[in-house]
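Entry 12.
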Amino acid sequence: GSIRDPFGNLLIDASGYGPEKGAGVPYPEDALTRKNKSEAHLQQLGVHVLRSLPPVVGEVEVKLRDAEEVARRALGIYVAALRAESLSTNQEIPPENIKIRLPIGFAALTPEETAFMQSKAPDKQQIITHIWGYEALLILLWALKLAPSLPDPTEICNVPALGSVILENDEEKLIAIAKLRPTSEILDALDLHFRIHWAVREASLNSQIPPAGFDASVV
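Predicted 3D structure (tokens):
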């Protein structure tokens, strides 16, 4: 009828009461170290974050998808983003042309992306949504060591540079060369951006501009 920490202290009981004084959720040591590192970095930037925010998962708690699956997902995102970009500039690239050039990416589309690619006249919000896919693409290419760095989220990503990574490689070659960064490095980025997200949301709720020049939409 209760949940307790490793020392038997009450975290919460069946009635919703808790936690007892001194009770605490146990976190892996690397997760706590990562949290402290993120907080120190943000403090140097003058960014306040809630100290009670928990750490993200530790290395022993996570199982990443393999590099091939991540690479296929990146190609799928690029396919939808490319069409959205072309529509936004009134220079539509026909979906069938994209499919010829990027068949693996086309096969990796999600149901939502497939519906977007099949739509003859997507609405404005659909176009905007899939253009923002470029930001997700940057994250995945960085995780696959196909982008050299993950810049601070202060401005939109370099779209032409991302496109070059995809289009200058054959799809099968891109999948073959993709290698995931160490789990610790990916979790470092996750923990940091988790706290940045809190900071920009807090600023928004208080009608303030995001701290440290962060772009809330990019975050």
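Annotation: The beta strands are 2-4, 10-13. The first strand starts at residue 2 and ends at 4.
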